[in-house]
TrEMBL record:
Protein name: 1-deoxyxylulose-5-phosphate synthase YajO
Entry's EC annotation: 1.1.-.-
InterPro entries in alphabetical order: AKR_Detox_Biosynth, NAD(P)_OxRdtase_dom_sf, NADP_OxRdtase_dom
Enzyme class: oxidoreductase
Length: 352
């Protein structure tokens, strides 16, 4: 595969990044099968792997470490993430000091990731989600120290709103700290909200962009069609709100996914190739993250790097899902606590 520059880091990565979220208890529990998928991706030319400490409570990192322990580590740009609690399911609360974006947690958790990954360094260490009650300078200074110590080569953010990306860049410049070199946003044909501000901001600051869920969590595989039963999905079982068809946003996704499948068929493409090629076509995008659970799923996604969408197809896609539109609220990836916590947007009783 050809490679693209990862922001301005000087590192070069393939236009598809292998996501490891589905390796382990959340997807494929057989370690040997998962390792075989990783090796197949590397043999196909992919040189970029992304995981996270929270995926299957660290099991994903363990599997990736096993896959690279046979002498392949030096050939791979290895990325992982920190933020969520390891000892509780995502979305639930645990020890508040065993999670988040504080220096206390970062310097502890990086050691755990290094151990699980069986490596001495991480190429790209990413903040998995923003945290409103932690000063961004606290996070950036800890990451800068890890970079200077050689434990990480670069660091980035994931699912940050545009204004927080801008703030982080300003703080880095003012305080003489390292800066976020990449952003990992939710981006697919069905979730285009980041086209409004996140992608332009990333371009402004020369950041690499690594879209997660470019197949919209399976909605853009061709299996979701009108008039058919909903397919079995491990992701749907884990995140039912993103697949519940009683939700108007998910119903709109079904309508769009069906129309997109028809467009792909008319264009002589698979919907998977068309969806991945769509994300690759945006000038801000570096490497969409594919997340196969099986060898067959990996095989169906590798060919997208050879697909270029013409203006006519891109215009038709814009008609089905207008630019800047995210059809379902659950696909935004992050909702500010000021929206979900009423106490953050209401004055205490008795105050004018």
């Amino acid at each position: 595969m050809d490679t693209r520059s990862l922001g301005r880091t000087g590192m070069h990565v393939t236009p598809l990044c292998l996501g490891a979220m589905m390796f382990g208890a959340w997807g494929e529990p057989d370690h040997d099968a998962s390792v075989a998928i990783i090796h197949r991706a590397l043999d196909a030319g992919i040189n970029f792997i992304d995981t996270a400490d929270v995926y299957s409570q660290g099991e994903s990192e363990v599997i990736v470490g096993k896959a690279l322990a046979d002498g392949r580590r030096d050939d791979v740009i290895l990325a992982t993430k920190f933020h969520a609690a390891m000892d509780v399911p995502m979305g639930q609360k645990g020890d508040p000091n065993k999670r988040g974006n504080s220096r206390r947690w970062i310097v502890r958790e990086v050691e755990s990731s290094l151990r699980r990954l069986q490596t001495d360094w991480i190429d790209l260490y990413q903040v998995h989600r923003p945290e409103w009650d932690t000063d961004i300078e606290e996070t950036l200074s800890a990451l800068t120290d890890l970079q200077r110590a050689g434990k990480i080569r670069a660091f980035g953010c994931s699912t940050f709103p545009a204004h927080e990306i801008v703030e982080s860049q300003w703080v880095s410049e003012r305080r003489g700290l390292g800066r976020f070199v990449s952003e990992q946003p939710p981006y697919s044909i069905l979730a285009r909200g980041v086209e409004v501000d996140v992608l332009p901001v990333a371009e402004t600051y020369g950041m690499g962009v690594l879209p997660w869920s470019p197949l919209a969590g399976g909605w853009l595989t061709g299996r979701w069609r009108k008039g058919q039963d909903a397919p079995d999905s491990s992701r749907a079982a884990r995140m039912p709100a993103r697949y519940d068809l009683s939700d108007p946003g998910n119903q709109a996704k079904l309508e769009a996914a069906d129309a997109l499948a028809v467009l792909a068929e008319e264009s002589g493409l698979t919907l998977i190739d068309m969806a991945l090629a769509f994300t690759l076509a945006h000038p801000a995008v570096t490497s969409p993250i594919i997340g196969p659970r099986t060898m067959d799923q990996l095989t169906t996604q590798l060919g997208a790097v050879d697909v270029t969408l013409g203006k006519d197809i891109l215009d038709r896609i814009d008609e089905i899902v207008p630019p800047g539109t995210t059809l379902a609220a659950g696909d935004r990836g992050f909702v500010a606590p000021q929206v979900t916590d009423p106490t953050l947007r209401r004055r205490p009783s008795g105050l004018a």
